[in-house]
Design goal:
Oligomer: single chain
Order of helices and strands: EHEHHHEHHHHHHHHHHEEEEHHEE
Largest sheet: 4 strands, mixed
Strand content: 5-15%
Strand order of the largest sheet: 1-7-4-2
Number of helices: 16
């Protein structure tokens, strides 16, 4: 890529060996210019070394403390799904585009953990945040950003989308700073309301001389990382799910039949999932088929390693092609089709597939995996419990065409949400 040699890893077995058997050697984030501009090595997603370890430990423990994997966050997701249902009902079965609505619903879950707050779907602050994140996801796939990553010293001075990306980052970070700084004076160590409170308590406990981790820059980047990642990937997966249900109405009906049989008209809960193998398989297949993160953020080899018979010197940049695992023909019978049977046995029981790795694996496995799984199940089942999704009248073919971007979302589409009696 440009003047730098890059190794690309493909296929489930190869990815598993790198991420699990050589976890330490492949755990370092490469210093990609555009992501360096984003984080300067702070926060969680693009950090390395001890800073990354400290931020990851804090994030995992704090997400658990504030509900990840617990009934409290289930209840919050169900409350948000009720608000989402009311918004869908407001269109009275007429066509509408759902990107910002789905973004807002999912964003409110991570915001409740970060700030103990909920935004109205029309709130201009939330719209501004979502717009910046959505725009930057698209800009990451633009030719100028790719050129900037390949030739940073040359392209840095030329106008283009890489400049717009940086402007968006600055605007996003400015808002995050204003939001959390305003709450700093209200922190009570004995009554921690959210992740930001928990961070400030750690900051007060840290030795001021050696206080190199719990500083405001790390907090600002950590919050922006969690907001962007927590909103964009899950809402994109759900939007794929609704589009796919319109494409395959018989699969949608099968899911609805299982919902009626197991849940009825009550709110769904995670305990229902083990009794709903078909729905679980459909959600897994949505994630596999949608393939929303085809390639990982580049890694950097931390020490010389012999891998698959090749010598990879320390500092080598590595790209992990996650799409090659999700479409590995050895593990998926129909890799290019939407086929829920990839996750079902002959008796209709749910079966795990080891090549299913949308959350990665190894040291850098997604910190919010449990939260994302919960959101996908609860939002998806609640929506299909209340609505049947159809394309607008006259749309004879539903296109499963992705947009270009760092994540692979569906092209904007219109849908009709028809209330179920």
């Amino acid at each position: 890529m440009g003047i730098q040699k890059v190794v690309v890893l493909c296929g489930y077995e190869t990815l598993k060996e790198a991420l699990v058997n050589y976890a330490d050697e492949f755990s370092w984030r490469a210093q990609t210019p555009i992501f360096k501009d984003w984080s300067s090595g702070h926060g969680l997603v693009f950090a390395n070394g001890e800073n990354w370890k400290v931020m990851r430990r804090f994030t995992l423990s704090t997400l658990r403390d504030f509900g990840m994997g617990k009934k409290s966050i289930e209840d919050k997701i169900n409350e948000e799904s009720d608000a989402l249902i009311q918004r869908f009902k407001s269109y009275k079965g007429q066509p509408f585009e759902n990107t910002m609505i789905m973004n807002a619903a999912v964003a409110n879950i991570i915001v409740s953990i970060l700030l103990d707050h909920r935004y109205d779907y029309e709130d201009p602050v939330l719209h501004k945040l979502m717009k910046v994140v959505n725009e930057n996801v698209k800009l990451l796939a633009s030719p100028m950003v790719m050129l900037y990553n390949a030739y940073p010293s040359l392209i840095r001075w030329i106008p283009g989308t890489h400049k717009k990306f940086k402007t968006n980052i600055d605007e996003f970070h400015s808002f995050i700073r204003e939001t959390f700084v305003n709450s700093k004076d209200q922190v009570d160590a004995n009554d921690q309301r959210n992740l930001i409170d928990a961070f400030f308590v750690k900051q007060q406990e840290e030795n001021p001389i050696s206080g190199q981790y719990f500083h405001n820059e790390n907090l600002m980047h950590l919050v922006s990382d969690l907001f962007a990642a927590g909103m964009e990937t899950t809402s994109t997966t759900l939007r794929w799910g609704l589009l796919i249900m319109m494409k395959y109405p018989e699969i949608q009906k099968n899911v609805q039949n299982e919902i009626e049989k197991v849940i009825g008209s009550a709110h769904p809960h995670m305990e229902h999932r083990k009794k709903m193998p078909y729905t679980d398989a459909v959600i897994h297949e949505i994630q596999r088929f949608a393939n929303i993160v085809p390639a990982s953020v580049p890694r950097e080899i931390t020490q010389d390693v012999v891998f698959k018979g090749h010598v990879l010197p320390k500092g080598t940049n590595v790209v992990l092609m996650l799409a090659s695992a999700l479409k590995d023909k050895t593990y998926f019978k129909k890799p290019d089709e939407f086929y829920p049977q990839h996750f079902l046995d002959a008796e209709g029981n749910f079966v795990k597939n080891e090549a299913f790795m949308p959350f990665l694996a190894g040291r850098r496995v997604c910190a919010g995996e449990n939260l994302a799984r919960m959101e996908l199940f609860l939002f998806f089942t609640r929506l299909l419990q209340k609505f049947t999704f159809q394309p607008p009248p006259g749309d004879l073919d539903v296109e499963l065409t992705p947009t270009e971007g760092f994540t692979r979302g569906p092209k904007p589409y219109q849908l009709c949400a028809l209330p179920r009696t």
